Amino acid sequence: MPPDAASIPxxxxxxxxxELPFQMDRDEGALxxxxxxxxxxxxxxxxxxxxxGLQSAGCALLAPEPRRxxxxxxxxxxxxxxAWYGDAAGGTLYFGESAFWSAMRAAGGDPEADLAVRxxxxxxxxxxxxxxxxxxxxxxVPGGSGVWDVLAAGDQVYFTTFFGPGGVVDTVRGxxxxxxxxxxxxxxLARGPGGTLLASRYGGAAGGPGAVVMLGGDGRxxxxxxxxxxxxSIAAPKxxxxxxxxxxxxxxxxxxxxxxGAVSTDSRRLALDGKELARIxxxxxxxxxxxxxxxxYFAARSGRTLSLLVxxxxxxxxxxxxxxxxxxxxxxxxxxxxxxxxIHVAADGxxxxxxxxxxxxxxxxxxxxxxxLVFPRTRGEGLYYSAVLEAKRLCATYCAGVxxxxxxxxxxxxxxxxxxxxx
Length: 423
Prior knowledge:
Blueprint: H1 38-53, H2 55-59, E1 70-73, E2 82-89, E3 92-98, H3 100-106, E4 122-127, E5 132-138, E6 150-153, E7 156-159, E8 167-170, E9 175-178, E10 186-191, E11 197-201, E12 211-215, E13 221-226, E14 233-243, E15 248-257, E16 264-271, E17 276-280, E18 284-290, E19 296-302, E20 305-311, H4 320-323, E21 325-330, E22 340-345, E23 351-355, E24 359-364, E25 369-374, E26 383-390, E27 393-399, E28 402-408
Antiparallel strand pairs: 1-28, 2-3, 3-4, 4-5, 6-7, 7-8, 8-9, 10-11, 11-12, 12-13, 14-15, 15-16, 16-17, 18-19, 19-20, 20-21, 22-23, 23-24, 24-25, 26-27, 27-28
């Protein structure tokens, strides 16, 4: 493990996740210089100090289970880089490699420190069947830093770099197409309607509002849907998801006061033209994803209860959250220390919820069954981003160096037996 690599314990107060209230200047194609970011730099420094202060508390979370965990580290990772969001396709787990956390920490909270990190910018590749690191894919883009999010569609892997433009890499040919037209500030990705791509733009041009961006597969701009916030605040979007049944967009949002202060959160449900249909503050939707069959899965926190809300494709067309079926994940959730960071739907229909702390819930929705595993964290440090279930193994990206950690998946529950017919 590289020294000091992502030695960040779990979640901070205010649910910052990985996003920062940057003021983006899309016309220049890059972030403005530090002089334009006094509040962002101060906020980032407070974030780092808060994270360090919570290190001992983070260690007090659940201890790893007495089961075998195999840790596989990239053999030649760039110093300070660690594994971020991942997505699986064709037996390969693709994931971003970024030095954002370690660089910002080493620079005393400078959010642009990642831009000074030398070395190639890459998407990591992990073979799930053989459980080994494969050669990473280089995705150097103008003005880009490390890779934040990835979305795998066969051999095509879409990616964002936040400080620079996003793009797509053909993993067979090794060809990279840069999405210059889409600009900078792109954060998380999701599949959109009709083969399009959705991306959250965390900061708008010249400090304007964030937006949901709809792109063609080649990166052309189709639409940009700005998000509203109360006067004096900016809406900065994070996770995006498309509901193919209702043809609506979900987005989770940080509401950032322009004069400084605590960041609040909400989630929005939008029509395809950007009209806001609903704004939800309770429960706090921490992550949302829709499966190919139209089923929706929401990691939702209310107080200290974390649940998976399951929205069936044939649910009534009214308020989706009222129609969703809750499955309890944790009734002792600590929002100051943890966050539901990602959701993946496995081929067998099970749903995997990954938390920053390394607590991973494997849910069988049609049985209301939940198996909870606790992945190891060295000295209580490092963050888990994305866990995927492949065959009988469960593998997760671990941001403590460029690592993937695997263990045996819990067995799928047996289907209920049908009563025997009496003759």
